[in-house]
Amino acid sequence: MNDESDQALPRVLIIDDSRMVRASIIRHVRDRFEVREEADGEAGWQTLMVDPTIQAVITDIGMPHLDGYGLLERIRKSRISRINTLPVVVISGDDEPDVRVKAKSAGATDFISKSIGNVELLARLEALTQLARTQRDLEESRAALATVSPTDPASGLATPSYLHYHAAQELSLAHRRHGDLSVMVIEIDQFDNLIARYGAHVAQLVNRKLSKILATKLRQEDTVAELAPARFVIVSPATNMDGACAFAMRLRTAIDHIVMTYREERIRIQITIGLAAAEPGRTQTVSHLIGVAMQRIAVGRAEGGNRVMGAKGEVTPEMASVPVRAPVSIDQYLLQLRTAGLDPGLRKQLPDAIRTLLPLLELIESEFPSGLPLATLARVAETGLVGAAPKGE
Length: 393
Hints:
By secondary structure, the chain is an alpha/beta fold. It is built from 15 helices and 13 strands. It folds into three domains: 3-146, 3-Layer(aba) Sandwich (Rossmann fold); 160-314, Reverse transcriptase/Diguanylate cyclase domain (Alpha-Beta Plaits, 2-Layer Sandwich), CATH 3.30.70.270; 330-383, no CATH class. The protein has helices at 3-7, 19-29, 41-50, 68-77, 81-84, 97-105, 118-148, 160-176, 191-198, 200-217, 241-256, 286-302, 330-340, 344-367, 374-383, and strands spanning 11-15, 34-38, 54-59, 88-92, 110-113, 181-188, 223-228, 231-237, 259-262, 265-268, 271-277, 308-310, 313-314.
C-alpha cells in the first residue's frame, strides 16, 4: 500500500469568478485540504470530468458562462456516480432565504456565506469530505460484492461475471465429454425508440418484464444474465443448435403474445435472438460464442428485427419444428425408480434418460472398452421407441 496516498490531503475544487474570494478561501483551508480553483462554472465542470480525486466542491452562484445553479444541475444529473454524489457547498455574499432555498432545491449539500469564519468553514468541509469518502468506499464495496455474487439483486438473474465463470465450466465439461452447449443472446427491438416515446421508466419496466419471463421459461441447468439494458444472454448446457432454435422460436412466440398497457396505450414487445453453439472438436470460449450470437443479432436487426438468427441465417418455424426433448435429471429419475418402480411415466422418459447419459457412456466406453451398445442406445434416444430396440447388439 502506498503511504503517500494514505497521507494525501482531501482535494477540494473552488469555483468563483473573483480571484480575491478564491484566494481568501484557499488561505483558510490550505493546511487541511489540497485545492484546485476555476473562475467559472463551465471550467469547473470540465475539471470535475477529468479529475476523479476531487472530494468536494465550493461554488459561487453568479458566474459567467455557467452559473452555480447550472453547475449544480449538471452535477446532480451526471451519469458518473463519483460526480453526482459529490458534496457541493454553495458560497455567496447573498444570504437571502430564497437564494438558500433555490440552492438547496438545485442539489446543494450546504450553503454558507462568504463571511463565514475559518473554524466553521473547516468543520463543514471536513464533515462533507469524510461523508464523500464513506460513500465512495461503500460504492466500491458494493461493486466488489457484485462481481463475486452469483445473483444480480436488481433483476434476480445471474450476474454477467458469474455467467461467464459458470458457462466456462460448462463449456469445458462439454468439450471433455463431447457434449453440447448453446448460447442465446436476446435483444429487445427498437429499445431506444421505446425510451424516446414512453420514457426511461416505462422502458425499464419492459426490460424487467422480459427478465421475469426468461427466468420462468428456463430449465434449472440454464443460466441467464442481463449483459446490458435490453440485452440478455442464456447459456444452455446439453443443448445443440437444433434445440436452441426450437427454444428460441417458442420464446419469441411467447413474447409476441405479451401486451403491456401504459396510459391506455398498448405496448407490444418484439425481440431478436442470435444463437451460437459449441462445435465438437473445436476449442472455443464463452466470449467467442456470445460474440457470434451478437453478430447474428446485428444481421437480424438489419433485416427488420423480430427474428431468430442461427448459423444459416433466419430460423423459420419449419426448421425448428422437430421436437427437442430436454435432458432428464438422472438423480430425480433414479429416486423415482427406487420409490415407484418403472411406472409408465418413467418408461416414457427412458429415451430422454438414455440421451442424457450418452456422453457419459461414450466416455466410459472410450476409457474402458466393454462393448456397450452405443449405436442402439443412440437410436433409442433419437426415436424414443424403447420397444423397437433389439435386446442385444
